[in-house]
Structures are given as C-alpha cells and as structure tokens.
Amino acid sequence: MSPSAAEADTLGREVWFELRIGGLRAGVARESVESVGDVVLVTSVRTRMAVERFGDRVELAQDDTWRETAEGRALEYLSDRCLAEGERTLLRVLVTGDRLVVHKVSHGVEYDSEVSLDADLVFPMALERLHASRGFVPGDVYSYSAFDPDFERVTTCSVSVVGRDTVRLCGRPVELGHVRVASDVYERLLIDEWRDDEGALWLQRIDHLGVETRRVTSEEAALESELPDIAAAMVVPSNVTFRDPGRIDEALYEIWLEGGDVERAVVLDERQAVEGRTERGLLLRVERSLPPGAEGVSGRRRAASGIPDGGQAAAHDMSQYLETNALLQRDDPAIVEAAERAVSDAGDTPWSMAAAISRAVADMMEFRGYGTGFASATEVLRTGRGDCSEHAVLAAAMARAVGLPSRVVTGLVHFDGVFAYHMWVEVWTGENWHGFDPTQGSGGLDATHLTLGSSSLEGGRVGELSLPVLRTANRLHVRVVEYVEAGMLKSPAD
C-alpha cells in the first residue's frame, strides 16, 4: 500500500529542532523521513547536545531510527547513544507479532531479551496520523503504546487535548493543536506538545524541568549552543548552611513539592520517617543510621512507616542486586581484584567490607569532575575519573564482587549551602539496607542525605535513577526545622 497524498508530502522531509534547557540553547536535533520502496517509512532523528554540570562540559549524542509500514505497523527501532566518552549503547528492537525481540550492546556487553506486546506499538509516522485523525477537540482523551529505550519496555501514553494555540516558530505565527501527554513509566510527568493538523510536532515542553524542544529553521539550527549548567540549575536552596554536614546526626525537615504529592516523592525507611504534616507538605525526620554494632551508631532506630522500601521482602531474592551487567561488571577480573584488595583487612562482616569499599573508591578516584554522563564500573576503575554516579557504580560493582547485594541511590545531599542531587550506594547487610557515600569515602550516611529513590541497575538500565530527579526537579523545597550536630540540638537561628 502506497503512502497517502498527505504522507507523501512528508517523504524527504528534513526538520530541525532546537533543544533548550532553562531558556538556554543546549543542542539540536535533525529529523528526516524517507521511504524504502513504497511500503516502508523510515524516520531518523540525530540529536547532539552539550551542557555543563557545575562548570564541566558534557557532550551527549544519540541517533534514533524507526521503521514502519505505510499502514502504520511498527517493524524495527534502532538507537545509538553515547553518554560517556568511548562508551556507547546500541539498541535494536524487532517487532515480531505479540512480542519485541531486543538486542543491546552496552559498554561492550551484549544482551538479548524479549518484551511482551499487548497492543499495537505506535511509531512516529503512525503517531502523526493518530493525532491528525483525532483532531484537537478540547477535552478529547485517547492513548497509544510506545517503546521506552531507557526502561526497555512498552509504555502507555495517555493524551488529553487542551485545544488550539497560535505559537511563533521559525519566524512566523503558526496555529497548532495543543495536547498534554503522560506516560505510565514517568508517573506525574506531564509533557505539553503542539502539533499541526497533519500531526507533526512543532513544540514540546516539560515546564517544571525547564526543558523545551522547538522547531527552528536550518539557519537557526546552525547557531552555537549556550551550555546551560543543568546541575547548578536544579539545586534546592537551604535555609541553613552546614559547615560540616558530616557532623549532622539527625535533622527535621519541612519538605513540599509544588503541584505534587511529596510523600510519594521520598523514600520512607529506617533513616527517614514522617513526623507530621504542614500546610505545604510534611515533616521528615532523617537520622544517621548504621547497622547494629557498627562503630559510630547514633540516633534512634525505628521501624519504617508509610511507604516501605522492600527491605525484608528483598531478602527472598537478591539476584538483581548481585548480577553482573554492562554498568556493574562484578565479574571483571580488575573489579574483583580491586574489591578483594579493598576488603583484605576489613574483617568479615558485610558492613565492615562495605565501609572499606567506600574508602577504597574515594582513594581510587584521581579526578573528581562532572564531565562524564554515566560511565561503567570498568571504565571508572580504568580512568579514575567521574562524579558521584561514577563513584556509586564502581562501589556497587565492587560490593557485588565480594558477595554483597548492592543498589544505587538517588537523593539530595547538603553541599556548599544548598541541597544538590546526588548518588550513593546501599548494601544489604543481612537484616536491612544500609547506605554509604563513596564520593566522601564515608562508612555511613549523615542526616543531610535525603533518599528519593534507588535502583539495582538491572540489565544495565539507568532509567530508574532518573525518575526521582524528573519527578522533583525545580519543584522540591526543603526547609531545615531543627538538627542535631555532635550531640547538640540546634535550630536555624543557631
């Protein structure tokens, strides 16, 4: 079946998009559509970005290709992504009847898996036709299924039509249909899109993240990027500056989330518990907590309340927290050697080994910068470079190499008068999960570490680690109510 007249107009189309973060130009994407014979449509998007993280430049590159029939049946998806120098992730997804066959090469490791398919998968050209056929009647709602490469799973995208707007793009006013899209993977994350009557995208925004993709002319696409600092832009102001956060044994915070449920945005466990509620949000008590008998235990120990973190249940199956994968190469001989050397004089308890690994990783890192997107443990060990995420993946891999189940945590930590997004590690000690911060070389966590989520990084997928940031960035507020420093109760006035 040949493409319709409207679809034929899109063949050979080349469209440029500008990617903006916080109002600054971060990069460009080039979309092209072509045909293979008269039965297959190929959509390709080439994305190049350059941003800063606390002043260090990070370059990101991604190429995506979708192949589908002229009738809209999904055939194949290809992705080539580079988030760290020399480390690429290649993904190929074949649609075969009621399942997806996934082949991934990540950091030199190959994986094969299958994903069940309960509904027809919608690729770019079919998606344009879907939006065009529905029109833009305010209040209309519908949904479609898409493949999410970060989670390597099928997601349901729910669409609600807002109406029509006139937007100035490519130097002229354009009347476009306005829809709002929500994915069941990225819960509570709303994406606003503006599309023309043929369903083609012109503008996309995620307001609370300050992220915007807008159609531009080829001349505008050739302009230089402005290098927005994405890390500095997302810090959370603090009403207290802790000169030495490591001395904070306990703290009571008022936490609230603009336009969201803050209680679903934080983890409640032995370290963190809700103590009360305010008009804006909740009062969260955070304590320094170490395993029983560990040196330096302070603060109260209490049962988790509210949302559990799966601590005891996780004891039944630790396989995902012990697996080797493209990010956490626990069976790499160099990782095994480094881990065994780190724990050689540490004693035989899980926590003593974890604390020794934390100190060893901190000592191994020769350059602590923010210029790496996300490197694997093997690459981090080889280069000795990276920020908190690189410290975390190396420490998690080393813990697994000596038999300690581990997971990587996303949260906030007090740094230079603000709370910044950060990553650290938790290990299962036999009775619960306990955390340490290998960036600091600490054998435990002070009370300025606020946990927002965690991930086993199963299959080498990093999507789960980004969810807490996507849910809370530029919307989360933290106010210190009181704190205990070196055994003394203090208030912000002190």
Keywords:
494 residues; alpha+beta; C8orf32 fold; 24 strands
Number of strands: 24
Spatially, the strands of the biggest sheet line up as: 8-7-6-5-4-3-2-1-14-13-12-11-10-9
* CATH fold-level name of the largest domain: C8orf32 fold
Share in β-strands: 35-45%
Alpha plus pi helix count: 10
Question: Which CATH class of the largest domain is shown?
Answer: Alpha Beta
Poorly predicted ranges: 1-8, 296-315
User: Please, how many domains?
Assistant: 2
Helicity level: 10-25%
Q: Give the assembly state of these chains.
A: single chain
How far apart are the termini?
A: 75 Å
Radius of gyration: 24 Å
How confident overall, as mean pLDDT?
89
Q: Which shape, going by the Cα principal axes?
A: globular
Architecture of the largest domain in CATH? Answer: Roll
Return the structural class: alpha+beta
Main beta-sheet annotation:
14 strands, antiparallel
Question: How would you describe this structure to a colleague?
Answer:
- Mean pLDDT is 89; it is low at 1-8 and 296-315.
- A hairpin with a 2-residue loop joins strand 19 and strand 20 (418-428).
- This protein folds into 2 domains: 5-230; 234-490, C8orf32 fold (Roll), CATH 3.10.620.30.
- The strands form 3 sheets. The chain has a 14-stranded antiparallel β-sheet with strand order 8-7-6-5-4-3-2-1-14-13-12-11-10-9. Strands 15, 19, 20, 21 and 22 form a 5-stranded antiparallel β-sheet that branches.
- The N and C termini lie far apart (75 Å).
- It contains 10 helices and 24 strands.
- It has helices spanning 5-8, 124-134, 218-221, 230-233, 311-314, 333-342, 350-364, 377-383, 388-401, 463-472, and strands spanning 13-21, 24-36, 40-53, 56-69, 74-84, 87-96, 99-106, 109-116, 141-148, 153-169, 172-183, 190-195, 201-206, 211-216, 236-237, 248-257, 272-277, 282-287, 406-415, 418-428, 433-436, 450-455, 476-485, 488-490.
- By secondary structure, it is of the alpha+beta class.
- The radius of gyration is 24 Å and the shape is globular.
- Helix 8 (377-383) packs across helix 9.
